[in-house]
Specification:
Radius of gyration of chain A: 19 Å
Shape of chain A: elongated
Oligomer: homodimer
Number of helices of chain A: 9
Distance between the termini of chain A: 44 Å
Largest interface: A-B, 46 and 46 residues
Chain lengths: 249, 249
Amino acid sequence: MPTKPRSNSPAEASTEAPGNPCGAASAEAFSFGGHLTSTELERVNQIVALRHFDVRQLIVIQSDIASHRFILNEGCVKVYRMLADGRVQVTGFLFPPDFFGVAAGGRYAYNAEAVIPSSVCAFPAKDLERIMEEFPEMERRLLSVISNEIAAAQDQMLLLGRKTALERTASFIQGMANRSRSGGDGGSRVFLPMNRSDIADYLGLTTETVSRAISNLKARGVIELSKDRRTISITDGAALSDLAEDSGQ
Amino acid sequence: MPTKPRSNSPAEASTEAPGNPCGAASAEAFSFGGHLTSTELERVNQIVALRHFDVRQLIVIQSDIASHRFILNEGCVKVYRMLADGRVQVTGFLFPPDFFGVAAGGRYAYNAEAVIPSSVCAFPAKDLERIMEEFPEMERRLLSVISNEIAAAQDQMLLLGRKTALERTASFIQGMANRSRSGGDGGSRVFLPMNRSDIADYLGLTTETVSRAISNLKARGVIELSKDRRTISITDGAALSDLAEDSGQ
DNA sequence: CGTATACTTGAATTGAGTCAATAAGTGTGG
DNA sequence: CCACACTTATTGACTCAATTCAAGTATACG
């Protein structure tokens, strides 16, 4: 028996709302809390299906017809683009209860792949659209989610275009810390579910450079690394912020 | 008298729809064509105001309260972020009839500055919101516009994270050519309203590197430069596409 | 316990940046 | 129309941050 049992059965993933595999995730993602009647919520539940994905399994493929929209229920997903010769740029990491599957011109705009075993709630795009027409509240919330996504994309462009390797790595660690903080976790301990190669592809660097930058931060006394090197403790948050240079944010 | 007179008076900008300074721009941007009654259109016109901006004049400032939304009526606008030490990343160039002024958390997520003398239609955000509640059609259209913006942002992340200077420059020229093509212009001649420094800040390079890349493309016989170096003729579109590596698009 | 995978570290290379000079284009005023 | 200044763009020489190539080490896993 593995030390960290993973949820691979729909039964386990649906503990929060029996009969609705995605209750918690969908409600949280669309900020329904109290805004939908049980009838309305049931409407959403009718069309949702829970799907499981193993590590490195593709969830959506760029340029495929965008038949579904998704909410990440458990795990971590990387969103990325690829050039013909194999160069990869990860444009974002998703955590529960992130929404994805946005399309441009009826087709998915990116690849999405499970970074660790993950489960997602899948909504047929057509059904979701119909429900959105009924509940404009939902559409407005989606607009706000996507607006934030644009702001994040612009931050990432600034990082990729103008920051040094050390600054990129510091920004990444700080960003992950902010996410897990809002997710309820204590604060200065950050778990990184993705490997160095995924981080490198997100930061526009190589694995070696990411590794060197992390070692550099460790040597400066800004962070500490766990034995498995996937958990980072921030020991000097001020220094990390300085390096990250998050001016406007 | 200058050879290319610019429209600096509201009167000249409102030729298309007398009494409504932004008729053409707002209708086109929201894809109303035929979908709004004259009463509804009038509602939009009531709240719009035309504003003029000189070269390098700021239109919106990052982190200011996002009181207005805009549609570019004439000219060209650069959207950018800046680090504390002055490093700049241009996240996009806007052309008529692009929409901008999207906010995250009630505040503008970026700076926007006129690249050439420009005019914009300004809508008070509150009024626009109210109108959107009345006409969900508009909101859905905005959602689609923003979705495309995310796809473009991801393309740009791939460019900034993984493409060489030559590939970035080729991608930029091809992107500008696509824009002006859809804008009605013939095809292989592209006018670049922005200077090399703005291009460099968009591509995550320096002006020198952009200049070298353009010279390289010229030497390869892919493009030709006009005397004023702001108009590019694409002489080998296939070679340009190969260099740009626009896999999925 | 041994093998595979992931990560780190070192040395050499290189693409883009920096610094510096030149060239071309624009605008002004005589 | 020309001379001058000013801005913008190009080109060259050198530097450096990050990549590439190459070991080496640690951790996970069967």
